Amino acid sequence: MKKKRALLVSLFLSLAFPFLLLAQDKPVTGKITNKVNGDPLAGATVTVKGGAVSTTTDATGNFSIQAPPGAILLISYTGFGTQEFAVAPGSAYNFTLNELSTSMNEVIVVGYGTQKKRAVTTAISSVKASDLENMPVFRVEQSLQGRVAGVSITASSGQPGAASTIYIRGISSVNGGSQPLYVVDGVVVDGGIEYLNQADIETMDVLKDAASAAIYGARGGAGVVLITTKRGRAGRINVNYTGYAGVQKAWRKIPVLNAEQYATLYNEASVAAGGNIRFPDPAALGKGTDWQAQVFNDNAPMQNHELSISAGSDKSTYFTSFGFLNQEGIVASSNSKFKRFTARFNSNHKITKAITFGNNIGYTYINSTGVGTNDEWGTPLNRAINMDPITPVIETDPAKLSQSPYTMPDIVRDENGNPYGISSIVTSEILNPVAGLKVAQGNGWSHKILGNIYLEIAPIEGLKLRSTIGGDLAFWGDQSFSPVFYLNATNQNLINDYTRNSNRALNWVWENTASYNRTFGKHDATLLIGITAQRFAGETQGGTRTGIPATNIREASLAFPVSQANQYFWGGEWESTLSSLFGRLQYAYDNKYLFSAVMRRDGSSKFGSNNIYGYFPSVSAGWVISEENFWNPKVASFLKLRASYGENGNNNLEAFRFVSTVSGGRNYVFGDQLINGVSPNAIANPDLKWETVVQTNIGLDAVLLNNHLSVTVDVYNKKTTDMLQNVRVPMYVGNNGPVGNVATMENRGIELAVGYNQNIGDFKFSVNLNGSYNKNEITYLGPDKDYLQGLVYGPQGVEYTRHIVGNPYGAFFGYKTNGLFQTPEDVTNYKNKNGDPIQPLAKPGDLRYVDYNGDGLISAEDRVILGNPNPDFTYGFTVNAAYKGFDVILFGQGIAGSQVLQAIRRFDLPSANWSTKALDRWHGEGTSNSIPRVTLDDQNKNWSNSSDIMLQDGDYFRIKTLQIGYSLPQHIINRIGLNKVRVFFTGNNLITFTKYDGFDPEIGGGSFGVDRGIYPQPRALLFGLNVGF
């Protein structure tokens, strides 16, 4: 029996052996290379899917692994994601891997270092030089508009050289200081960055969440923009020239009444006010003067030229550049100009294998002239809108020339000696805009040197010691001259005056850092520690002298001797210091699990003795899900989840607000003696400290569709606490309360960025979209305080905005209306509970104000929040396409969910011109229920109150840039020693889609969202040339 069993077992094994042999693992060998350039990928991980067997490639990209029949190999490599391949045992393969999208593999600046984006655990967005090449952007910060999710940029004016209002994830403070911190090549910049030439910039990295900005501590609360300028590259000398020139014009003008229409409505307004008809035959006046045509230039020239030279060897590299920009404004071109000259020299020298020395230095000279903008007090555009069209530009009527005011000796005249027209209808600051420009003389200038030198030592592998000394030296000033002139009865200068201001500032920083990187097994860690000392100091001085022997600004000088009564001089200085210690730990395990922690300690001279020092921590973590074995790379080749928490500060505030300052002029008579005295302005507060910004962020980065599609999503909550406000104290204290850290504000939002690229033969295509939503809210302003006064404008002190708890910063504020009174009975029937008229001064055609508080009266207590100038949504897109030598760039941006308050018309001057909307005014029962009647006696304050009839939809979408280019074939240009020749046409601000009917819906600066005659963005048509050799 036993022999039979043994025989059966032997027979079974002999029959099963071939099948067992077929089923066992066999080696699979192969080589893994980069699909783009064919380079071997050393250290790539090869794993059998569903098993525990794995190996890595050697230095030549080769591997060998045991795999069963029908196996699927998972091959992953840093920067290439994870990809699947089906294999047959016993075979050899050549695998090629596609890199992840450029956005995940690119190296970005993170503050005192760099990092691959795939390893970043915070919210950072980047704009590269290739995104900006040949773009007609004259201020660098405008390059971020519509290109970075979460960054809201609004032009304060279309005037050449004008700054922009920039908010990163919303307004951060009620005290200003919401503009981001700029760091150029490691040097913190005090103020704007108008001096930078866009062509010199390599990258701009925006640190949006608190964790990424925490390394800048007390100054990072409003976000940080890191700007890195271009460096030289080893190899032959590379010379590049780019230039373009063209013309600009206004993309829109406001339709106002012509002379006939104006005279008709003026007559109606006069009769409504109980007056007489002034113009018996309006038709005889014709079209009259188009004042906008007089101040706008539809062919304003501009040109820009840039030349750069790059060269170097394996020991030293150099980059030198020169730039020149000359732009005339589209409004009053002779008075609105901007010229800028820039020069840069960057170098890097490898003294030994372990020692590197380098520098970055740039010089900028700016000379500019400008006109007033967005102001009802007599700017060129405000005058052009409000000036009556009946008055001529030049008065030639002999009958009028023989009478006053044309007989005034100092009347302003043109080059031919003809006097400019003076209105007998509109007065005050609203006068002949051409004459007003004639007497305006002045300009501003600046010289700026910004740079640093650095020494880096790498004594052992992984350790870098770096010392950097940077400086920001600036000289700037302005001058203005007012000759003797007569413009009208209320605008004349009987004695000339000349004013000149001069300023200088020197800010320096000394930073010393040590970083150590160590990789052991699957662990990778980098530790950074640093110490910083900074000083900001400057001074200003200026003076005015009147009655000098000069007739224009070229002849004017403060050196002319005048009496003591005809001169006035002033001066001042400022200084603050900052000392800091900081550290950062970055850790990664197996390229899957990422962690970062930052701590910074800042000491500032701006704050009280009890709070000189502050601590700003942050932590962040990331999980690269796509590196996990369970992940299916067909879903997404790269997927990372990240989260962060951090604290920043805001010290962009006035220095020494913690002390009790004193004011003079408190004189008192003791006996027969007048004693000079002073008194304190407020109580001191030694506990005063910086404002604190706390922010949490959750983000997701993904690459899909075979690395063609990249997606980034961020959700954040940003809370500002300890905002500075005056604290109320009891009356018996006998002084103003101190400044305290009491107020809070919150911003909540979500951001989305999507990129797609595709190459099909010679056709290359890419599109980048971004959008963001932000909700801003003031949550607390201190005890017994529920609002702050906002923007107050106009001769009558109208409050257009107010900052109220529970509402966004800068919300529009005023009266709600409910149509127009159509009949006298409508007025009398609008009664309170006592039977009294709620608006006793109203007449048919006047606004019906809403009695919001129900007290039966229309008063200031009925004013409410009307709208919001802060957009809910900002968005932008860029499309790039190229086929052989042709290329096209299309860029657009827009906002949604905002309003604009239009206050262009001078409400205190009822005879000012009207827009053509007044043609649809109320002029009888049922003729209109939205546009009030015209009258020279506005007792109902239809237009002098801030109300919802002034509010308009501020949403817009703008085609910012359309560029079409052609590059000559290489085989042609190589024959003449060139490596690049490209010609291009650019249209800037070509089309704007908006419901707003003013000059421009984009209104930034101090009048954020309030249009009082904004200088519009110019539409430009430019032709350019790019040559490289």
From TrEMBL:
Q: Name one Pfam family in it.
A: Plug
According to its UniProt record, where is this protein mainly located?
membrane
Membrane topology field: Multi-pass membrane protein
* Cellular-component GO terms for this entry: cell outer membrane
Keyword Membrane in annotation? yes
The TonB-dependent receptor plug domain is annotated at 117-224
Q: Which UniProt keywords apply?
A: Cell outer membrane, Membrane, Receptor, Signal, Transmembrane, Transmembrane beta strand, Transport
What is the annotated signal peptide range for this record?
1-23
Where is this protein found? Cell outer membrane
Instruction: Return the SUPFAM superfamilies for the record.
Output: Carboxypeptidase regulatory domain-like, Porins
Name the family the entry cites.
Belongs to the TonB-dependent receptor family.
The protein's name? Putative TonB-dependent receptor
Organism from which the protein derives: Flavihumibacter petaseus NBRC 106054
